[in-house]
């Protein structure tokens, strides 16, 4: 890949220092002063790059690897050529993520769109809004009446912060996002085009057909260290609040309905839809393209496979998949039975054609 000026290399971190900071053991301490500046995949890593391996499947890629270090665990460290230093750890994926954070800090949240700092010309900040020191508001962004924004937060170009919204410190509200009727914690990242706090989908049957809109007067509560992907929508509550728990990460193009309560440290992948008033526990992982019914409870630690349809409560700690979602062992058994029946039908068709 040609030089990537969007994310330039680091000035350099000693390999020994990098090992300490990511919790890895540098096997050959003689190279501790070697500098690393960037991350790269194994097959095209060059001097100055650090990469990682999770399995033997990457073995062939080592033939073209010239990395300054490879992060891996003991089970595959013997595969690494002798000329490439090894950073040994039981959690190579986590260690590599930490290395990337150190070497490419600029990539960890949406970057500035201009070189301007502070309140840029062309931004509109209502006179009644309260901004702490070191807040940035880029051109064409709007901060509404009575809004409060904490120190170190950046409001990017074209973003709209509604009246009375409160945003904590060290947050990034990226270009074109809108945040309405919401209380946002510290160190929250909201990616471009996300829509937070608009009214939810609620209607009652009209007296002469059609539908009458149900008023939505709740809020959205986003706790600390949450990340919300591009073009994701989170509706405000009808009368209670929609809540996103601390440390939860939400991918692009996710729809979260009104009054949904999501616990701490959940992961929700692209294309998921969660209907209103559902309760999601702590540490829940929901695979891409899944749909979750309204007014149900998904317990702590649950894992939902991609493209599943969750229609009823899921007990804590379970792994579910399929449509309707059911325990993974049942889902896999059903899939195997359907495959076997399909194979039998094909055999019968072939047998009939040969008669």
From TrEMBL:
CDD domains: LbH_LpxD. PANTHER family: UDP-3-O-ACYLGLUCOSAMINE N-ACYLTRANSFERASE, UDP-3-O-ACYLGLUCOSAMINE N-ACYLTRANSFERASE 1, MITOCHONDRIAL-RELATED. Pathway: Bacterial outer membrane biogenesis; LPS lipid A biosynthesis. It catalyses: a UDP-3-O-[(3R)-3-hydroxyacyl]-alpha-D-glucosamine + a (3R)-hydroxyacyl-[ACP] = a UDP-2-N,3-O-bis[(3R)-3-hydroxyacyl]-alpha-D-glucosamine + holo-[ACP] + H(+). InterPro entries: Hexapep, Hexapep_transf_CS, LpxD, Trimer_LpxA-like_sf, UDP_GlcNAc_AcTrfase_non-rep. This is UDP-3-O-acylglucosamine N-acyltransferase. The keyword Lipid biosynthesis applies. It holds the Pfam family Hexapep. Its EC number is 2.3.1.191. Residues 33-100 form the UDP-3-O-[3-hydroxymyristoyl] glucosamine N-acyltransferase non-repeat region domain. Keywords: Acyltransferase, Lipid A biosynthesis, Lipid biosynthesis, Lipid metabolism, Repeat, Transferase. One of its GO terms (cellular component) is membrane. Catalyzes the N-acylation of UDP-3-O-acylglucosamine using 3-hydroxyacyl-ACP as the acyl donor. Is involved in the biosynthesis of lipid A, a phosphorylated glycolipid that anchors the lipopolysaccharide to the outer membrane of the cell. GO terms for molecular function: N-acyltransferase activity; UDP-3-O-[(3R)-3-hydroxyacyl]-glucosamine N-acyltransferase activity. Homotrimer. The active site is at residue 258. One of its GO terms (biological process) is lipid A biosynthetic process. Belongs to the transferase hexapeptide repeat family. LpxD subfamily.
